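Figure 3 (text version): structure tokens given as input.
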């Protein structure tokens, strides 16, 4: 039978908190030491590692249980297939974290993703996104578009027609060519 002494409840509560404190601190220290992004082989990775060959990088941030991500995945496969040899490539980032890594791996296989994918812990990705964009993390899907020189040019929360991404890349590339021609011709 439990004592009706309020002091004993306080003691039991404090003891429980103190016993869990080292576990929470250890978990936080472990998470802080992990890289923000890693490959599915647990190797540290950065987005900059994928901005190569003078190509645009379309980053698709997804979750295995996101209905829109599941519905739209094939479009990113098609986009990557169409552009990877010319002007752009796709990088996927799962926010499933290590706890749902198996589900994320199933998502990649189910949709036959033909582009590299990284994985991140949801809370760490949210903090990174907010620091990168100055906006609150809202969820998946989220798209980021990096120029060939690594500048974040577009951020979009939610799905968008990939034709708009293609038009943006074409328009921006044409603008840069036009500017370069003016410089070369002294105008």
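Below: residues designed for each position.
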């Amino acid at each position: 039978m439990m004592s009706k002494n309020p002091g004993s409840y306080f003691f039991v509560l404090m003891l429980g908190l103190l016993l869990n404190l080292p576990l929470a601190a250890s978990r936080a220290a472990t998470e802080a030491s992990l890289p923000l992004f890693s490959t599915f082989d647990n190797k540290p990775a950065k987005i900059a590692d994928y901005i190569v060959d003078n190509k645009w990088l379309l980053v698709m941030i997804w979750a295995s249980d996101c209905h829109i991500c599941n519905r739209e995945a094939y479009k990113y496969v098609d986009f990557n297939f169409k552009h990877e040899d010319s002007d752009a490539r796709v990088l996927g980032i799962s926010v499933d974290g290590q706890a749902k890594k198996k589900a994320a791996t199933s998502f990649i296989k189910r949709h036959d993703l033909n582009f590299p994918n990284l994985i991140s812990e949801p809370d760490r990705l949210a903090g990174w996104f907010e620091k990168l964009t100055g906006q609150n993390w809202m969820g998946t899907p989220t798209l980021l578009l990096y120029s060939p020189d690594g500048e974040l040019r577009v951020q979009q929360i939610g799905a968008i027609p990939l034709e708009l991404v293609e038009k943006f890349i074409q328009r921006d590339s044409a603008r840069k060519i036009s500017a370069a021609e003016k410089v070369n011709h002294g105008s």
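The chain has five helices and seven strands.
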